[in-house]
Each structure stands twice: as C-alpha cells, then as structure tokens.
Fold this protein.
Amino acid sequence: MSLLLDNRFGDLPPDGAVDTGLFLESVSHIPSFFDCLGSNVFSVIKSDINGNIQKIRGVYLKDPAKYVTLRDIVVSEREGHAAEWPKVGATLALMWLKRGLRFIQILLQSLADGERDENNPDHIRVNVTKAYEQALKKYHGWVVQKIFNVALHAAPYKSNFLRALSKGEEVKEEECLAKVRQFLVNYTATVDAIYDMYTNLNAELDYAV
C-alpha cells in the first residue's frame, strides 16, 4: 500500500495538537489518492484539496514560529478577522480540507470493515456513496450533488482501486486492507483532532456550495 504507507501521518501528542509543518508535509501527498478513483469528476475534490493545502501553507510560511500548530492559525485569524471569521483565510481552507480528508477516511474505513454490495462484491460504489453522504453531501447544493452522483456510478472495481493504491502492484486484497487499517490509525486521529478543534472553537459553518 505504498501510496498510503509511504506518506503516513505521525502520532499526535497527548494534547491532540496538530503540528502545522508535519501536517502539511503528510497531507501534500493526499490529492494523488483521487487518481486511484479513476473518474475525472473526483478531480474536483482533488483540485479543492490542493487549493486549500496551498492556502494553509501560504499562511504558515509567513511565520512558522507563530503558527506551530493548526490551532495557532485558526485562533490568530479569529483575533485578526473578527468580522469575517471563520469564513476567512486558512480557517476556511482547513474547514473544507478536513471534509475532503473525512471523505477519504470513511471510504477507506468502510472498505477495511468489509462493507460491500453483496450482489456486486467487487464494486466500491457502496463505500464511495457512504463516504460522500457522510462527509460532503450536506455541504453541496443540488447541482454539485448531481455531478457527484455521476461520479459514484463511475467508481472503479475494488480490485482496480486497491491495485492503484499499491502503485500497480498485484497484491492480495487482505494484505492491502491490512495496510489500509495501519494507515487509518494516525490518519483518523488527525482528522478527528481537527474536527474537535473546530467544534471547540465554534469555527464550523454549514453553508452549501
């Protein structure tokens, strides 16, 4: 599972603070995940994630010593842009980025848990649908939802998806899924920590695009 394990996320400290530099390094490899899904429609999510990573990196590089953790960035923007916050800067970018990361988490966890369409066991449509509905759908308007409905029907076969994650190597399904579970440990903890931070800071917005 080279695509995932080669760029796995690190352990979080006891306080759950997410180091900005380490996070940006790990997350920079995530957009290539969407290439494994095949459909060009998923390139929309890939582009969105790329753009949001760049926005966060742009703020971080202005003062790395000040923005040691992601929380440092969000709190600083709350203090500096009270009228617009949280719909501003890196705070808004991270808000959308975490949703894309959650999509990946739910999709991979669903596969690792063995959830499948018993009539079409080599399809991952049920897994992709679950991830989209839980992580992104409520933030998308009708037009965007229709676009993604097309993408869901174009989801690849599980065997092709796992092969893509393995960078084209032929590996056994259970071996792939074992590595997915290994990747998910720190990845899930990181995504959960960012969601908790947004809840604690009252920084979440529910508008749709």
